[in-house]
Design a protein that fits this description.
The structure holds two protein chains of two kinds. Chain A has eight helices and seven strands. By secondary structure, chain A is α/β, with parallel strands linked by helices. Chain A has one domain: Aconitase, domain 4 (Alpha-Beta Barrel). Chain A starts with a strand and ends with a helix. Classes of the chains: A alpha/beta, B alpha/beta. Chains A and B meet through helix 5 and helix 8 of A and helix 2 and helix 5 of B.
Chain lengths: 164, 415
Amino acid sequence: MIKDFTARLWKLGDDIDTDIIIPTEYLAFPTVEEMKGYAFSPLRPELAGMIRPGDCIVAGRNFGCGSSREQAPEVLKALGISCIVAGSFARIFFRNAINNGLLLIENADLHDAVQEGDVISVRANEYIEANGMRFGIASLPENLVEILDAGGLVKAMRHRNGVE
Amino acid sequence: MGMTMIEKVVSRNVGKAVKPGDIVTVSVDRVMLDDIMMPFIVDKFREMGFRDVWDPDKVVLIYDHLVPATQVDDTRHYHVSDDFADEQGLPHVHRSDGICHQLMTEAGYVKPGDVVFGTDSHTVTYGCVGAFSTGIGYTEMAGILGTGELWIRVPETIRININGTLPSNVTSKDIILTIIGKLRADGATYMALELAGDVVDGMSVASRMTIANMSVECGAKCCLFAPDEKTAEYCGVELTDELRELRADSDASYAMTLELRAEDFVPVVACPSQVDAVKPAAEAAGTRIDQVFIGSCTNGRLEDLMLAAEVLKGRKVAPYVKLIVTPASRKVYLEALRNGTIDILAKAGAMITHPSCGLCCGRAGGILSDGERVVATNNRNFLGRMGTSKVEIYLASPATAAESAVQGEIAWRKA
């Protein structure tokens, strides 16, 4: 189950595309560990080096638009991002994140109520608390919760195939 | 109540009537795997504990993003892919024949009504022949390779009717860019687009392909065109009553309907660095450029190259402009050679490259530096896509791109 947590936030705008999250020139690196230092490099080259495990991202509309590259959520997971709160998510990124066990929360109001560096508290499946205000969390469809609970699609498939 | 096209295609696949919002498991008719994702797909497939691909005949493996290799170690992707193809006995492997989305339709891997997934976001292209196709990540692809199935949420549909007569200088690229400008980059997120009307009926399959290809740029999950005689001829199938029936019912229910007048369209460009920053080419005219790229799964087909040649015939590219032309496939390349198109382009000063994704994904010759500008016929003008993050990319039709190459600044073909 998703646990309660608090996280320091990095604030980004609308339409953060997958080429910003991880540019094509780094996609063929053999491992996500080797790619993660280049996350967000076209937009904020310093950012990847400043993110600490447990931090979260608060963004505007259409986070993760663009390419189907699953390296995008994998890189964010490798940097230790605990969750992404955005006004909306592009659909392929949404599926890819869930399949990697990366928590996404859709909320249109939080973005305007916080500054970079603020700390938010996430009460699983209920609300986000920030600067003394509460923001609701919509529940995910059941089949997605199952994938998240299993720890991602690879683990869910391992379970299906009887390789634990 | 009637059904939209995507509702019919999914219902046909799962064998029961579906409605938007339903979560169903579809049986996959075909998958497309591209070179840049292959090592990750193979790793996930093994990690999941699978040994055998569910149906090798349904798998198409295409090397296009990394062909020929431009960075040290890119060739690792060929070797991993070759080994997997040998091990699994995959019968459909293309190692340098062109761009994945062009080959999937051109080589007959996708038929009307099929359900197809690919590890590239522009997999939406195959809606041009009335298939449901969309992009997924490598983990889900590994899951399909093992099981032949995937869950989907049945999307709502936005219907777009275009009727009337298009101005002679407007192409299907101008149409889809205009639609993206209207809907915004997330206007169709999680939804299907469905296009219809006189203009669509009169379009070639290649032109429909350009529109379906870019539907993902407004967030769409897919973009469907009803199969007609042209579709049947292109796909080499008979237009049966079953295929005709895939057309949306007249009483289908839509999230939104856009009625567009063909006469209102003009040549447009998408300005840096958002695909939805669309304005008439006339408003950007005079902006000095350094390079022009004509190619990609959006606009690298024979009709695109012929249109560029029509504009460039007997003229010369501006002295300081580099014009790069990349045919979408080997077949397109050969046809353009035979009918004299390549001859016209080369005489005008174009550099013709091998068929591949090329500059569209920034892994080819033609990389640009800070402050430089390019007019390109591909689908994305994101930061850093063709070089540094300070390169300005303008998206346009092959006609606008060709005219701009001659003028050395953004320019458009007059009606």
